[in-house]
């Protein structure tokens, strides 16, 4: 399972960049008038209860007071297709008026660059607002797995869970198989990291 040491590498992509672009008092008043009483959604490409979704929840609790008018900010969880479901929604279907903010995995641009299937967005056209933090990605293996070192992982096939082929939970073990010679068997289709954690506990994956 791919995990994150410390905190997420999630990046923000807004339909319209807001508070950082406020110019003068008149424009600021107009922005405040627009947002006052409104609801802003943070669309997370992770599920509720997983690491990525939890970071979106934390950000939603604090973002509103930094936007003129102090709108209510709520997370909306949209896992699936390794994050592409949320990316595609924000790009193609979400309102483009500044009331929707994408909270994306770090592979959003890479997946487009390498031609992953199901990508229906152009990452260059998002208005990038910022990043929560740099990432340190780690692979974790359940304590009862038959292989727990790199050398053992080169000899024994280990099932590992992934949300989809566009996700870091798929890409990282794929890279390890290709360049380190490990034998991860990647099981896709999980709806976020929380279900993968449960599958590790039951022995479905390691």
Question: In a nutshell, what does this entry contain?
Answer:
The protein has 206 residues and is of the alpha/beta class. It folds into two domains: 130 residues, no CATH class; 66 residues, no CATH class. The longest helix has 13 residues.
Describe the structure.
- The chain contains 7 helices and 9 strands; from the N terminus they run ββαβαβαβαββαβαβα.
- The protein has 206 residues and is an alpha/beta fold.
- It folds into 2 domains: 2-131, no CATH class; 137-202, no CATH class.
- Strands 4-3-5-2-6 form a 5-stranded mixed sheet, with helices on both faces. The protein has a two-stranded antiparallel ribbon with strand order 1-7. It has a two-stranded parallel ribbon with strand order 8-9.
- It is elongated, with a radius of gyration of 19 Å.
- 38% of the residues are buried.
- The model is unreliable at 4-9 and 15-22 (pLDDT under 50).
Unreliable spans are 4-9, 15-22
Helical content band = 25-40%
Give me the side-by-side strand order of the main sheet: 4-3-5-2-6
Q: Structural class of the secondary structure composition? A: alpha/beta
- Largest beta-sheet characterization: 5 strands, mixed
Distance between the termini: 7 Å
The proportion of residues in beta strands is 15-25%
The tally of beta strands, per DSSP, is 9
Shape: elongated
User: Radius of gyration over alpha carbons?
Assistant: 19 Å
Order of helices and strands: EEHEHEHEHEEHEHEH
The whole-number mean of residue pLDDT values reads 83
Number of domains as seen in the coordinates: 2
